[in-house]
Amino acid sequence: MSAEHTATVSTPSDLETVAATPGAAKPNPILVADHVVRRFGGMTAVDVDHLEVQEGVITALIGPNGAGKTTFFNLLTGFDTPNTGQWSFQGRSLTGKGGAAVAKAGVVRTFQLTKALGRLTVLQNMLLASPTNPGEKLGLSWLPFVWKKHEAEATEKAMEILSRFKLDAKASDYAGSLSGGQRKLLEMARALMTDPTMIMLDEPMAGVNPALVQSLLGHVQALRDEGMTVLFVEHDMHAVRHISDWVVVMAEGHIVAEGPPSTVMKDQAVVDAYLGAHHDTDLGDDSLLDPEVLARLEAEEENR
Ligand SMILES: Nc1ncnc2c1ncn2[C@@H]1O[C@H](COP(=O)(O)OP(=O)(O)OP(=O)(O)O)[C@@H](O)[C@H]1O
């Protein structure tokens, strides 16, 4: 984290004064995007005029299928190139930077666990996500004591993160043998190997057993409470309503609404376009976030 950002600690209440309008200015924006356009042939997948993501809060990016959410994520994280547009993180331009440079700047995204990664163990997955061996920069990584020290440190860090997500007992299991919920936890755990300032989660609740959704939500909130900025794409509206501090709605490539979940999810245009009949149900039973209940749910999930 840069010096200028350690000085300011944002909390969700800082958003109370922000206007619920597309492109609204935030008190402490960590990511700012302007005029980001991505076309595929004649089709415009993303056309975001202006977006500010507030530091230290959980922002959900929602919208119907094909709205451009994943494409926008890919652009911001250097995995795709826009036709036009600029964006910056902590005041520094990230425009045109590739995935590795974006990660180095402190922005990391989760990826779905692919088949190939499923054939590696949980610990190997974690070590693959570890930042480059510092010895490589100096051309010293071939020296056994340099790489052994790095490997030992990375393993220790990986095991610490795995234990936070209660996956340490699975360290030597093949990642492919994990349940849907455990895979999502591993995706999050992998992302934390780089000590990010901001984490971007692509559908963290997809394919997760409802019992474990509560646990995942708790983990995401814990990251925010530790000061991390979270931006996540999600279709599960209960999850969005329950943990988001701010919601941004995309449709046909544009940002069509943004605001606190209570406001955005009542917006008739958003409800009609997207949320359907169950928009007013909040899954948010905080008693389920009780650590003992969570431990039981996680144990059940593990034994499945
Ligand atoms: N590589 C590509 N080539 C051509 N068209 C693409 C490509 N990637 C995305 N698109 C199109 O761009 C539009 C936006 O897709 P995108 O996946 O970003 O939407 P999304 O909001 O993430 O949807 P979903 O919620 O279904 O994941 C869609 O019409 C999609 O078909």
Describe this structure in words.
The protein has 2 domains: 218 residues, 3-Layer(aba) Sandwich (Rossmann fold), CATH 3.40.50.300; 64 residues, no CATH class. Helix content is 38%, strand content 20%. The protein is built from 13 helices and 10 strands. A hairpin with a 2-residue loop joins strand 4 and strand 5. Adenosine-5'-triphosphate (ATP) binds next to helix 2.
Put simply, the count of helices is 13
| Alpha carbon gap, first and last residue | 39 Å
CATH topology of the largest domain: Rossmann fold
Largest sheet: 6 strands, mixed
CATH class of the largest domain: Alpha Beta
Whole-number mean pLDDT: 84
The secondary-structure element order is HEEEHEEHEHHHHHEHEHEEHHH
Q: What is the CATH H-level superfamily of the largest domain?
A: P-loop containing nucleotide triphosphate hydrolases
Number of domains: 2
The main sheet orders its strands as 6-7-8-3-9-10
CATH architecture of the largest domain: 3-Layer(aba) Sandwich
Ligands bound, unique: adenosine-5'-triphosphate
Shape: globular
Key phrases:
Rossmann fold; binds adenosine-5'-triphosphate; 6-stranded mixed β-sheet; 10 strands; transport; alpha/beta; 2 domains
